[in-house]
């Protein structure tokens, strides 16, 4: 298994749970065993989670499951004929089955000044350590990108009392993941907490003094003084060695419902993959923990000779200030959205329908609606839009007794 995060770790665990008795090696380019990533932009930055609480599994897990964990090893080559992988100058390692779960990396900005000291990205623990340290010293923070990273870091930095400006090139926040009503709610939430949000504004240039960033020039012509710039403009799948042997395009490694690639005995899982999904009209790359774990489970089972399809119900969540944002399904492509609860009170859900059938639920501080939404989608059932918008109607009565 190549890649030591949620997908790779789940793949080794599931291979063992499904009865795989052969030798299992989990290879990760990072220097640490697999760890939790969601806290890195939130509780970890706020100093509320210590590093020793981050590992996903205790050391005993690897020992007990007889998993060889190899850290600090970046696979650079896959030989499909000899069926070997190679890390740099090391000797090629043979495999009978391979799971590629190399994830994604932060996209870098291509603007003058992007290489200045004080311009950072956030993807892994090393990034988070550096950001946490810089955040303590920062006097004014500029965030480029109003996606998950940008907004979570903005909320953390503002909670630490730092002045924060977010530049979002698109017309609304988090446009890739949520519908306009949620974007509008997030703008109001962040502004109320003192974050300056500039929509439709990209970054033209960063200026430095003595090699350190001191100011940004926005595409709106304004100057933004800053001594810390956090770039959160998306992620690029890590497909280098897979692409070199024809398994991937720059968009990702194409897999089927069982996480099989085009090569016999080679599977892929997580942020580096593109997979058909019942909620989308064409195969897509889903960047979230739940998808990485679902695909890892499916890939591990396949390695053990017990293939199981991926459930493929997308789920996302994000915490920003006191808002818990959760989504299940995909709202893109829906033709009707109805609201349950109240945006003014900061507790509401949007139920999205296509041709009268439920496709997705987005919630702010209504976790119960998410549980119900998940159950509807898993069962292929749907409330009517009128039932969904009526807070007095108990949606659970429409579900089979569990
Ligand atoms: P993203 O795709 O969620 O958001 C990037 C944002 O940057 C978009 O809104 C885009 O319009 C904007 N943008 C792009 N270029 C820009 C520019 N030049 N100037 C200004 N804005 C620009 O990506 P992200 O926020 O960087 O997140 C990276 C990865 O981390 C993703 O895989 C994401 O799913 C993951 N992540 C997820 C969570 C979560 O699920 N809660 C939290 C953190 C990170």
From TrEMBL:
Signal peptide: none
Statement: the UniProt record of this protein carries the keyword Amino-acid biosynthesis: no
UniProt keyword terms in alphabetical order: FAD, Flavoprotein, Oxidoreductase
GO cellular component: cytoplasm
Cofactor: FAD
GO molecular function annotation: oxidoreductase activity, acting on NAD(P)H
Segments forming domain Reductase C-terminal: 316-399
Domain FAD/NAD(P)-binding: 2-296
InterPro entries reported for this sequence: FAD-oxidoreductase/Apoptosis (IPR050446), FAD/NAD-bd_sf (IPR036188), FAD/NAD-binding_dom (IPR023753), FAD/NAD-linked_Rdtase_dimer_sf (IPR016156), Reductase_C (IPR028202)
Lineage top rank: taxon: Bacteria
Tagged with keyword Transport: no
PANTHER family: APOPTOSIS-INDUCING FACTOR 1 (PTHR43557), RIESKE DOMAIN-CONTAINING PROTEIN-RELATED (PTHR43557:SF2)
Name of the protein in its database record: NAD(P)/FAD-dependent oxidoreductase
Naturally occurring in which organism (per UniProt): Methylobacterium currus
Lineage, highest ranks first: Bacteria, Pseudomonadati, Pseudomonadota, Alphaproteobacteria, Hyphomicrobiales
């Amino acid at each position: 298994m190549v890649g030591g995060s949620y997908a790779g770790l789940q793949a080794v665990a599931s291979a063992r749970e499904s009865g795989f008795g052969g030798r299992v090696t989990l290879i990760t380019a990072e220097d640490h065993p697999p760890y939790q990533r969601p806290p890195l932009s939130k509780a970890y930055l706020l100093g509320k989670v210590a590093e020793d609480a981050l590992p996903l599994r205790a050391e005993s897990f690897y020992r007990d499951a007889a998993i060889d964990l190899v850290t600090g090893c970046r696979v650079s080559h896959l030989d499909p004929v000899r069926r070997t992988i190679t890390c740099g100058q090391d000797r090629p390692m043979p495999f009978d089955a391979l799971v590629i779960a190399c994830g994604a990396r932060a996209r870098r900005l291509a603007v003058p000044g992007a290489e200045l000291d004080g311009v950072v990205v956030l993807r892994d623990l090393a990034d988070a350590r550096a950001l946490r340290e810089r955040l303590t010293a920062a006097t004014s923070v500029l965030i480029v990108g109003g996606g998950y990273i940008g907004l979570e870091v903005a909320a953390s930095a503002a909670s630490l009392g730092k002045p924060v400006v977010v530049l979002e090139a698109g017309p609304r926040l988090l446009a890739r993941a949520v519908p306009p009503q949620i974007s509008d709610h997030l703008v109001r939430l962040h502004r109320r907490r003192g974050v300056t949000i500039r929509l439709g504004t990209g970054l033209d240039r960063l200026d430095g003094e003595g090699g350190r960033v001191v100011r940004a020039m926005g595409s709106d012509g304004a100057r933004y003084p800053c001594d810390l710039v956090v770039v959160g403009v998306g992620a690029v799948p890590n497909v280098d060695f897979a692409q070199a042997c024809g398994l991937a395009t720059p968009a990702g490694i194409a897999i089927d419902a069982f996480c099989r690639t085009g090569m016999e005995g080679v599977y892929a899982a997580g942020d580096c993959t593109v997979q058909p999904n019942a909620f989308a009209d064409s195969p897509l790359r889903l960047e979230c923990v739940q998808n990485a774990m679902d695909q890892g489970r499916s890939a591990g089972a396949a390695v053990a000779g017990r293939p199981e399809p991926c459930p493929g119900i997308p789920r996302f969540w994000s915490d920003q200030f006191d808002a818990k944002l959760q989504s299940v399904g995909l709202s893109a492509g829906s033709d009707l959205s109805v609201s349950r609860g109240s945006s003014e009170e900061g507790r509401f859900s949007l139920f999205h329908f296509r041709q009268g059938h439920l496709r997705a639920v987005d919630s702010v501080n209504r976790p119960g609606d998410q549980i119900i939404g998940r159950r509807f989608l898993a069962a292929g059932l749907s409330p009517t839009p009128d039932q969904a918008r009526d807070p007095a109607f108990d949606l659970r009565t429409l579900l089979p007794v569990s």
